[in-house]
Design goal:
Number of strands: 8
Shape: globular
Largest sheet: 8 strands, antiparallel, barrel
Order of helices and strands: HEEEHEEEEE
Strand content: over 45%
Distance between the termini: 27 Å
């Protein structure tokens, strides 16, 4: 799977928004995703990636919704709807993967202050995990 399919079931830091707020480098494509507050939830937008650096006008051409295929990937919302759960992770979110145009259920687990484990699932247990590292 890809850049945007992510996560893991690891014990992490308490689920405070400040733990995950900031810019994160993904495992693939040297993408940078900025996670911020979205009401009581958190969300994440694509800042850049190898593909965006090669083509700043890169569009979301594989989106399953034909009306969204002309939107730019840069600045696109790819993480949404995450809320803290009792286990100290951000759960019940959505992960959009521009590489295949699909949205997956997601979970974000902070590992200390400088790493996140992200999991995206078609359905459990069919999941993909990545570790993202904080960009300072």
């Amino acid at each position: 799977m890809s850049l945007l399919l992510i996560g893991a079931l690891l014990a992490g830091a308490p689920a405070t928004a400040d733990t995950v707020i900031g810019r994160w480098k993904t495992e693939t494509l040297n993408a940078i995703v900025e996670i911020s507050h979205c009401g009581s939830s958190i969300c994440g937008k694509v800042v850049t990636s190898d593909a965006i650096r090669a083509n700043p006008a890169l569009k979301d051409v594989k989106n399953s919704d034909a009306k969204l295929r002309t939107r730019p990937v840069q600045g696109m919302l790819m993480l949404s709807g995450f809320a803290p759960d009792k286990d100290g992770v951000w759960a019940n979110g959505q992960v959009y993967n521009a590489e295949d145009g699909h949205t997956y259920s997601g979970r974000i687990t902070p590992i200390g202050s400088d790493q996140l484990k992200l999991r995206g699932c078609v359905f459990f247990p069919l999941c993909k995990t990545q570790t993202w590292t904080r960009v300072r």
